[in-house]
């Protein structure tokens, strides 16, 4: 059983601390680089999937799907590295006073995002294998097939891949709205924890 408690461990402030509290700590530069590179890749790949879906069968659609698979495998590779990094580098101390339920909701959203960043591309790779299409990463080398060819299984994995991708975009939506609320309504500089700004102390 993998121990994922490292994802929720962080020191918290007492919520009775007088507001406004302006955050002064932040994630390490490695964690910030992982965050923004992956955020861009995920948004680009999601947009690509929607665009390809409307394309007629032809060379452009095939090229689009190749890029969709390559970017997805890159996300899978990066999230694996990121989880290993995170397991050994705890989140910086949360200096912002917020109700415990809000902090728990934030942690649960982060766990859901990590799970889905892993599960969505993995299901895509498994679907491709079940449909009999071996993934050739950027035309450089072939990835192993994760399951044997099986059309019915391929359809089911395709449905699961799509469902999880919608769940991922739902959690991303919640995550972004929460970040914007902290930035513009609470004005507590939570976003500063995930920015390269040199004014913050990086844990
Ligand atoms: C405009 C888009 C985004 C903004 C403004 C944003 C903002 C933030 C901020 C401020 C944090 C730090 C929260 C804290 O104080 O602990 C954070 C953490 C995180 N974000 Fe985002 N984010 C965005 C997009 C995304 C996307 C697209 C994903 C993944 C699909 C993502 C996944 C995560 C995860 C997993 C964490 C937790 C990091 C950790 O503790 O290891 N974010 N984000």
TrEMBL record:
One of its GO terms (cellular component) is plasma membrane. The keyword Transmembrane applies. It is a multi-pass membrane protein. One of its GO terms (molecular function) is metal ion binding. Pfam families: Ni_hydr_CYTB. Its cofactor is heme b. Its main location: membrane. The keyword Transmembrane helix applies. InterPro entries: Cyt_b561_bac/Ni-Hgenase (IPR011577), Cytochrome_b561_oxidase (IPR052168), Di-haem_cyt_TM (IPR016174). SUPFAM superfamilies: Transmembrane di-heme cytochromes (SSF81342). The chain crosses the membrane at residues 30-52, 67-85, 105-127, 163-180. Residues 27-194 form the Cytochrome b561 bacterial/Ni-hydrogenase domain. Keywords: Cell membrane, Electron transport, Heme, Iron, Membrane, Metal-binding, Transmembrane, Transmembrane helix, Transport. It is found in: Cell membrane. One of its GO terms (biological process) is respiratory electron transport chain. Belongs to the cytochrome b561 family. This is Cytochrome b561. The lineage of its organism: Bacteria, Pseudomonadati, Pseudomonadota, Betaproteobacteria, Burkholderiales.
């Amino acid at each position: 059983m993998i121990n994922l408690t490292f994802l929720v461990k962080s020191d918290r402030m007492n919520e009775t601390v007088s507001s406004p509290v302006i955050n002064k700590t932040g994630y390490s530069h490695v964690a910030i680089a992982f965050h923004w590179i992956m955020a861009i890749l995920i948004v680009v790949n999601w947009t690509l999937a929607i665009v390809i879906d409307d394309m007629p069968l032809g060379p452009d659609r095939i090229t689009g799907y190749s890029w969709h698979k390559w970017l997805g495998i890159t996300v899978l590779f990066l999230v694996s590295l990121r989880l290993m990094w995170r397991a050994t580098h705890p989140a910086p101390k949360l200096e912002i006073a917020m109700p415990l339920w809000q902090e728990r909701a934030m942690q649960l959203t982060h766990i859901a995002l990590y799970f889905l960043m892993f599960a969505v591309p993995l299901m895509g790779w498994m679907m491709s294998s079940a449909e009999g299409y071996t993934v050739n990463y950027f035309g450089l080398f072939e990835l192993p097939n994760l399951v044997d060819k099986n059309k019915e299984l391929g359809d089911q994995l395709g449905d699961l891949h799509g469902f999880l991708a919608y769940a991922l975009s739902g959690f991303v939506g919640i995550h972004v709205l929460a970040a914007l609320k902290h930035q513009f309504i609470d004005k507590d500089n939570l976003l500063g924890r995930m920015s390269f700004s040199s004014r913050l102390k990086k844990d």
